[in-house]
Amino acid sequence: MIEAISVxxxxxxxxxxxxxxxKVEKGSVYGIVGSNGAGKTTLLKILAGIxxxxxxxxxxxxxxxxxxxxxxxxxxxxPDALYFFAQHSIxxxxxxxxxIYPTWNEKRYQGFSSIFQIDRTKKVTSLSKxxxxxxxxxxxxxxxxxxxxxxxxxxGLDPVMRxxxxxxxxxxxxxxxxxxxxxxxxxxxxxxxxxxxxxxxxGDLFLQRELDDxxxxxxxxxxxxxxxxxxxIREHKSILYHEKRGSVSLFVVRGAQHDVLQHFQQFQPLIxxxxxxxxxxxxxxEMGGLGYAVEExxxx
Length: 300
Ligand SMILES: Nc1ncnc2c1ncn2[C@@H]1O[C@H](COP(=O)(O)OP(=O)(O)OP(=O)(O)O)[C@@H](O)[C@H]1O
Fold this sequence. Notes:
2 domains; 13 strands; elongated; ATP binding; AAA+_ATPase; transport; P-loop_NTPase; nucleotide-binding
């Protein structure tokens, strides 16, 4: 289990992370989303034990992570900017990992060669960006990690490899309760993988929910009337967005489905549709509440 309790981190005068708290249960997949510069990488690096927090506590299975070798052996962190030793082939890197990780699984490493299909004698730094990312997953998953921390993990992978890597992660979560923390701007992808979502903005982890709850709590309403839109319809306290498209009005409203329906039905519309939002849309509307301009970003 990963726990962060009121964790803060500054770089000079910049507060990159402000009292962030989160809990990722064993076997759970937690996605961090946020605007550029929100503090996602900073948070992941603290949880992976690469940066030390200024304040607060970080615990992996109850123990501190910074400079704690026993804990770090259980964690694999794949950063957004990958690093490999300049002259090392894949096999040399594997040898390095074999020496460091007592949990290294040789059978798995050999077996993955049919998935990744890259010549193991090749120098890693001579490979393409996407191939280097494949190597990062190949090595990381061969150590049988208990915790996987991924920063923009699928960036640069082709669609087939994305699918294969996602399957490897999902299988490890199902088969051996791998705990995963992922940051990504690709919300469509997070939607496939995550059961929990946290939204970070300017160092503040301001919203955390189970993905299913998040989706249940916010709705897109398409509504049309014979005449004009009744003025009182806008009085629902949790309307996040409203737009008129011809004779149809679109509302994004936070609240329980039953309450939202009841509010709109009382005006006896000609058409009333309640639609689910994608994670992309939820992110855009929630960020809109924080002053981000949403109008030009609205998904259909
Ligand atoms: N080593 C560092 N030294 C100084 N400032 C830093 C350092 N690392 C991050 N920052 C600053 O901290 C803030 C958060 O950066 P971070 O990389 O964590 O954001 P992010 O959410 O991962 O962004 P992105 O989505 O753009 O990758 C930014 O303002 C960044 O400039």
